[in-house]
Amino acid sequence: MMNRLSREDVWILAERLMMSIFEAARRVDELSPEFPDEWIEARDPKWNIQVGDFLNQLSSHSLEHRHEITSVRAAIGRSRPTDPRDMDPHTGKPYSSTWYHWRLLEAVLRRAEMVSELVGLTDNDLDKKPSPDLVAGNERSIREVCEHVLTMQEWMLSVIETGLSEYRKTKSGEVN
After folding, report:
1. Number of structural domains the chain divides into
2. Of 28, 72, 128, 130, which alpha carbon lies 20 to 30 A from 93's?
Protein backbone atom coordinates (compact mmCIF):
# COMPACT_ATOMS: atom_id res chain seq x y z
CA MET A 1 0.00 0.00 0.00
CA MET A 2 1.22 3.50 -0.81
CA ASN A 3 2.38 5.81 1.94
CA ARG A 4 -0.42 8.36 2.21
CA LEU A 5 -0.72 11.58 4.16
CA SER A 6 -3.68 11.61 6.54
CA ARG A 7 -6.82 13.22 5.17
CA GLU A 8 -9.26 12.01 7.83
CA ASP A 9 -9.80 15.46 9.36
CA VAL A 10 -10.20 16.97 5.88
CA TRP A 11 -12.99 14.52 5.03
CA ILE A 12 -14.68 15.00 8.40
CA LEU A 13 -14.64 18.77 7.93
CA ALA A 14 -15.95 18.46 4.35
CA GLU A 15 -18.74 16.18 5.53
CA ARG A 16 -19.68 18.58 8.34
CA LEU A 17 -19.82 21.48 5.90
CA MET A 18 -22.02 19.57 3.44
CA MET A 19 -24.34 18.15 6.09
CA SER A 20 -24.72 21.53 7.77
CA ILE A 21 -25.94 23.22 4.59
CA PHE A 22 -28.49 20.46 4.07
CA GLU A 23 -29.61 20.88 7.68
CA ALA A 24 -29.89 24.64 7.13
CA ALA A 25 -31.91 24.14 3.95
CA ARG A 26 -34.27 21.78 5.77
CA ARG A 27 -34.70 24.20 8.69
CA VAL A 28 -35.45 27.11 6.37
CA ASP A 29 -37.84 24.97 4.34
CA GLU A 30 -39.73 24.08 7.53
CA LEU A 31 -40.15 27.83 8.10
CA SER A 32 -41.40 28.38 4.55
CA PRO A 33 -43.10 31.74 4.18
CA GLU A 34 -46.84 32.18 4.56
CA PHE A 35 -46.87 34.67 1.69
CA PRO A 36 -44.28 35.72 -0.90
CA ASP A 37 -43.30 39.04 0.70
CA GLU A 38 -42.64 37.49 4.10
CA TRP A 39 -38.91 37.00 3.36
CA ILE A 40 -38.64 40.73 2.66
CA GLU A 41 -40.91 42.04 5.40
CA ALA A 42 -39.74 39.77 8.24
CA ARG A 43 -36.87 41.22 10.23
CA ASP A 44 -34.77 39.83 13.02
CA PRO A 45 -35.53 42.04 16.05
CA LYS A 46 -31.97 41.98 17.37
CA TRP A 47 -30.20 42.83 14.09
CA ASN A 48 -33.08 44.65 12.35
CA ILE A 49 -32.11 43.02 9.07
CA GLN A 50 -34.48 41.40 6.59
CA VAL A 51 -34.68 37.65 6.93
CA GLY A 52 -34.27 37.37 3.15
CA ASP A 53 -30.87 39.05 3.41
CA PHE A 54 -29.69 36.30 5.75
CA LEU A 55 -31.04 33.72 3.33
CA ASN A 56 -28.92 35.28 0.57
CA GLN A 57 -25.93 35.16 2.91
CA LEU A 58 -26.13 31.34 3.14
CA SER A 59 -24.87 31.24 -0.44
CA SER A 60 -22.62 34.27 -0.64
CA HIS A 61 -20.93 33.51 2.69
CA SER A 62 -19.66 30.16 1.42
CA LEU A 63 -18.45 31.75 -1.82
CA GLU A 64 -16.64 34.50 0.08
CA HIS A 65 -14.86 32.02 2.29
CA ARG A 66 -14.09 29.70 -0.60
CA HIS A 67 -11.97 32.55 -1.95
CA GLU A 68 -10.40 33.04 1.47
CA ILE A 69 -9.42 29.35 1.58
CA THR A 70 -7.95 29.69 -1.93
CA SER A 71 -5.84 32.59 -0.67
CA VAL A 72 -4.71 30.69 2.42
CA ARG A 73 -3.79 27.67 0.28
CA ALA A 74 -1.58 29.88 -1.84
CA ALA A 75 -0.01 31.47 1.25
CA ILE A 76 0.90 28.07 2.74
CA GLY A 77 2.33 26.80 -0.55
CA ARG A 78 -0.58 24.47 -1.32
CA SER A 79 -2.19 26.24 -4.30
CA ARG A 80 -4.55 24.22 -6.38
CA PRO A 81 -2.60 23.01 -9.42
CA THR A 82 -3.54 24.05 -12.93
CA ASP A 83 -2.25 20.88 -14.56
CA PRO A 84 -1.98 17.30 -13.23
CA ARG A 85 1.68 17.24 -14.30
CA ASP A 86 2.52 20.18 -12.01
CA MET A 87 4.74 19.16 -9.12
CA ASP A 88 3.58 19.35 -5.51
CA PRO A 89 6.26 21.46 -3.79
CA HIS A 90 5.79 19.55 -0.52
CA THR A 91 6.10 16.00 -1.83
CA GLY A 92 7.98 16.51 -5.10
CA LYS A 93 5.41 14.26 -6.78
CA PRO A 94 3.20 15.27 -9.69
CA TYR A 95 -0.24 16.50 -8.69
CA SER A 96 -1.64 13.69 -10.81
CA SER A 97 -1.40 11.54 -7.69
CA THR A 98 -4.13 13.65 -6.09
CA TRP A 99 -5.83 15.02 -9.20
CA TYR A 100 -8.73 12.65 -8.57
CA HIS A 101 -9.77 14.87 -5.64
CA TRP A 102 -10.86 17.57 -8.05
CA ARG A 103 -12.76 15.02 -10.11
CA LEU A 104 -14.53 13.86 -6.95
CA LEU A 105 -15.41 17.39 -5.94
CA GLU A 106 -16.70 18.05 -9.44
CA ALA A 107 -19.06 15.10 -8.83
CA VAL A 108 -20.14 16.70 -5.54
CA LEU A 109 -20.90 19.98 -7.33
CA ARG A 110 -22.87 18.22 -10.06
CA ARG A 111 -24.79 16.25 -7.42
CA ALA A 112 -25.61 19.50 -5.60
CA GLU A 113 -26.97 20.89 -8.87
CA MET A 114 -29.07 17.77 -9.30
CA VAL A 115 -30.34 18.00 -5.72
CA SER A 116 -31.30 21.63 -6.36
CA GLU A 117 -33.93 20.31 -8.79
CA LEU A 118 -35.72 18.73 -5.80
CA VAL A 119 -36.35 22.13 -4.21
CA GLY A 120 -40.04 22.96 -3.97
CA LEU A 121 -41.29 19.45 -4.67
CA THR A 122 -43.68 17.59 -2.40
CA ASP A 123 -43.28 13.96 -1.40
CA ASN A 124 -46.10 13.10 -3.83
CA ASP A 125 -44.26 14.82 -6.68
CA LEU A 126 -41.43 12.30 -6.38
CA ASP A 127 -43.58 9.46 -7.70
CA LYS A 128 -45.48 11.29 -10.43
CA LYS A 129 -44.58 10.17 -13.93
CA PRO A 130 -44.54 12.61 -16.83
CA SER A 131 -46.90 12.22 -19.73
CA PRO A 132 -45.21 10.36 -22.62
CA ASP A 133 -46.28 13.28 -24.83
CA LEU A 134 -44.06 15.68 -22.85
CA VAL A 135 -40.82 13.72 -22.65
CA ALA A 136 -38.52 12.16 -25.20
CA GLY A 137 -38.57 8.53 -24.12
CA ASN A 138 -38.01 9.08 -20.41
CA GLU A 139 -41.10 8.26 -18.44
CA ARG A 140 -39.44 7.71 -15.06
CA SER A 141 -40.55 9.49 -11.91
CA ILE A 142 -38.15 11.78 -10.08
CA ARG A 143 -37.72 9.14 -7.37
CA GLU A 144 -36.88 6.53 -10.04
CA VAL A 145 -34.27 8.85 -11.56
CA CYS A 146 -32.69 9.45 -8.12
CA GLU A 147 -32.71 5.72 -7.31
CA HIS A 148 -31.03 5.09 -10.69
CA VAL A 149 -28.33 7.64 -9.80
CA LEU A 150 -27.72 5.96 -6.43
CA THR A 151 -27.61 2.48 -8.01
CA MET A 152 -25.23 3.60 -10.74
CA GLN A 153 -23.01 5.30 -8.17
CA GLU A 154 -22.63 2.01 -6.32
CA TRP A 155 -21.84 0.21 -9.58
CA MET A 156 -19.29 2.87 -10.61
CA LEU A 157 -17.59 2.67 -7.22
CA SER A 158 -17.34 -1.11 -7.49
CA VAL A 159 -15.79 -0.79 -10.96
CA ILE A 160 -13.31 1.80 -9.66
CA GLU A 161 -12.40 -0.41 -6.69
CA THR A 162 -12.02 -3.54 -8.84
CA GLY A 163 -10.05 -1.73 -11.53
CA LEU A 164 -7.60 -0.22 -9.04
CA SER A 165 -7.25 -3.49 -7.14
CA GLU A 166 -6.48 -5.46 -10.30
CA TYR A 167 -4.09 -2.80 -11.58
CA ARG A 168 -2.20 -2.79 -8.29
CA LYS A 169 -1.95 -6.59 -8.31
CA THR A 170 -0.51 -6.47 -11.83
CA LYS A 171 1.95 -3.70 -10.90
CA SER A 172 3.10 -5.60 -7.82
CA GLY A 173 3.63 -8.79 -9.82
CA GLU A 174 0.67 -10.70 -8.36
CA VAL A 175 -1.19 -12.90 -10.84
CA ASN A 176 -4.80 -14.02 -10.61
Report:
1. 1
2. 72
